[in-house]
């Protein structure tokens, strides 16, 4: 069940445009630490009343601290709820998803999909696959795949993380430990040559480590904004990653370090 504040925020995010605006505000606050109401209005071209309402909603969700005349960041790396993250870098994610699906066999095959907005794009791109089984701990992905005739879905058990709508913990890990998959498709909050593949939540990371351990290969799907980032908890060492599918906005220097570490790099928007 979603927390009351999350449910309330999602109910108010009725358009993609507003969701993008809320994410833009979070980015401003994260970058500057403290932002005045007037700065938000000027940067985003919105009225003071609109900015004030958005800040109130974000403060209710405990994503910022509301101050007199503006807002302050809680801490670096604060996780953006999935309801808002799904609006970011949409075209890049669609390109990445198409590139991922092109690299899967067309015959009977088994993949594991972690939660995340890029992996959700991969799930959508599986619509025409004739015979694939997807093992996932993501409620979002299971729901997306439920109407596809050629896709069978195996869900893990576990405890629900409201921020990501993923099932985590020992029950989820035991499901991944009990199956064999051809490809683990992993979303990430960060990937770097030094820290590997990382995410904000340690329990989620442990669940995804179980997924990676039983896969014949692991492919990370992440838009360019995630390349070089390091989040709290490691999901996979860089040596466990066979391929990274990203886009041309990624930092070239960081991509070169990943290549040197043995990761095959695919720039989906240049194919």
From TrEMBL:
Where does the record place the HTH deoR-type domain?
Answer: 18-73
| Keyword terms of this UniProt record | DNA-binding, Transcription, Transcription regulation
Q: Does the keyword DNA-binding apply?
A: yes
The record lists the organism as Leifsonia sp. NPDC080035
One of the entry's Gene Ontology molecular-function terms is: DNA-binding transcription factor activity
Q: Cross-referenced Pfam families, in alphabetical order?
A: DeoRC (PF00455), HTH_DeoR (PF08220)
Q: What is this protein called?
A: DeoR/GlpR family DNA-binding transcription regulator
Q: Signal peptide location in the record? A: none
InterPro entries, from UniProt?
Carb_Metab_HTH_regulators, DeoR-like_C, DeoR_HTH, NagB/RpiA_transferase-like, Tscrpt_reg_HTH_DeoR_CS, WH-like_DNA-bd_sf, WH_DNA-bd_sf
């Amino acid at each position: 069940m979603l927390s009351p504040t999350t449910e309330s925020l999602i109910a108010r995010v009725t358009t993609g445009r507003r969701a993008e605006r809320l994410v833009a505000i979070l980015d401003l606050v994260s970058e500057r630490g403290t932002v005045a109401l007037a700065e938000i209005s000027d940067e985003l071209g919105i009225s003071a009343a609109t900015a004030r309402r958005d800040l109130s909603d974000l403060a209710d969700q405990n994503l910022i601290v509301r101050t007199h005349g503006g807002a302050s960041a809680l801490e670096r790396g604060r996780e953006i709820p999935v309801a808002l993250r799904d609006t970011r870098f949409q075209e890049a994610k669609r390109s990445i998803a198409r590139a991922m699906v092109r690299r899967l066999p067309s015959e009977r095959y088994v993949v594991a999909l972690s939660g995340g907005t890029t992996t959700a794009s991969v799930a959508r791109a599986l619509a025409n696959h004739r015979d694939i089984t997807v093992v996932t701990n993501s409620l979002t992905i299971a729901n997306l795949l439920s109407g596809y005739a050629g896709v069978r879905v195996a869900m893990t058990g576990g405890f629900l993380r409201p921020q990501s709508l993923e099932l985590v913990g020992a029950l989820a890990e035991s499901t991944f430990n009990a199956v064999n998959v051809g490809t683990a498709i992993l979303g990430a909050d960060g990937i770097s040559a030094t820290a590997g593949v990382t995410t904000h939540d340690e329990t989620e990371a442990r669940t995804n480590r179980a997924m990676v351990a039983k896969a014949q290969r692991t492919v990370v799907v992440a838009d360019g904004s995630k390349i070089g980032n390091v989040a709290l908890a490691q999901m996979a060492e860089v040596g466990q990653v066979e391929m990274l599918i990203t886009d041309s906005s990624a930092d070239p220097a960081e991509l070169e370090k990943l290549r040197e570490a043995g990761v095959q790099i695919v720039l989906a928007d240049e194919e």
